[in-house]
Amino acid sequence: xxxxxxxxxxxxxxxxxxxxxxxxxxxxxxxxxxxxxxxxxxxxxxxxxxxxxxxxxxxxxxxxxxxxxxxxxxxxxxxxxxxxxxxxxxxxxxxxxxxxxxxxxxxxxxxxxxxxxxxxxxxxxxxxxxxxxxxxxxxxxxxxxxxxxxxxxxx
Length: 155
Description:
This protein has 155 residues and is mainly beta. 15% of the residues lie in helices and 39% in strands. The protein has a 6-stranded antiparallel sheet. A 4-stranded antiparallel sheet has the order 4-10-7-8, with no helix packed on it. A two-stranded antiparallel ribbon has the order 5-12. The longest helix is centred in the C-terminal third of the chain and has 13 residues, at 119-131. The N and C termini lie far apart (41 Å).
């Protein structure tokens, strides 16, 4: 069924999902784009290392576009800095992760195509990370959430 013009909204998500110190805000979820794309804003505080494990996904590409600060991605073992105005496309199957090793907060726009994951994944991951109260998250539970949403944790 094709969405009607009255179903179209600007930035339909007011929710900010907090994964420990990280913040995710969906701008377009898959159900608003017939599953073709999901777009979210990612905020990573200064000097923050990602607590979730490196992972890959076989069903979609992920593109990160730098808005503020520099986010260091590691893709298949290669470190790549993405700053304002730069974009990185992470191909299907590539093992990746990111960290903010800088002294300023990072803001990036992330595009998932097709929209194989959405806010539900981040809400479930946030529950695991936030339960750890600043300590390391339960890696078994995190891996279960990741696999349920089509992400494969790296060994």
